[in-house]
Design a protein that fits this description.
Blueprint: E1 5-8, E2 15-18, H1 26-47, E3 51-52, E4 61-77, H2 81-101, E5 106-117, E6 120-134, H3 137-141
Parallel strand pairs: 3-5
Antiparallel strand pairs: 1-2, 4-6, 5-6
Helix pairs in contact: 1-2
Bound molecules: zinc ion.
Amino acid sequence: MFSRSITQCVRCGSEFKSTNNKDTCLNCRMLEEEEELEVASKLKLESKNILVATTPILDGYEIEEYLGVESGVGPSGGIFYEDFEESKNIAFEELKFKAAALGGNAVIGIDIDYIEIKSSLNTIVSGTVVKVRKINRVDTLSV
Ligand SMILES: [Zn+2]
């Protein structure tokens, strides 16, 4: 028995020989990969603007939506201070990227931890992803 069968692509509707239970044709799969890369680079840009804070609120902002708790893990820090800084920065980058992917613009209540994996320390940062809005201070002053 052949495992190959003719399948209809769920994306473009064209028929193709399915080799490993994929439901999109090769063309569409390539397009999907391109789109994923595009989305990833867009999120990478957006993540630069994500506000981060260890506090549960951001002064001057109000929380519109809670989007869930996320974490970022940095690689093993070496024995030097700079390595820990680097590890922490990477952990924050990952956390901010996840926040952007969730549609948030800030991460609050952030907790920084170090976990030991095979006798070296990794940085883990966790926080609550939120959508915040700047409070219009003019409004409150004119009352
Ligand atoms: Zn297709």
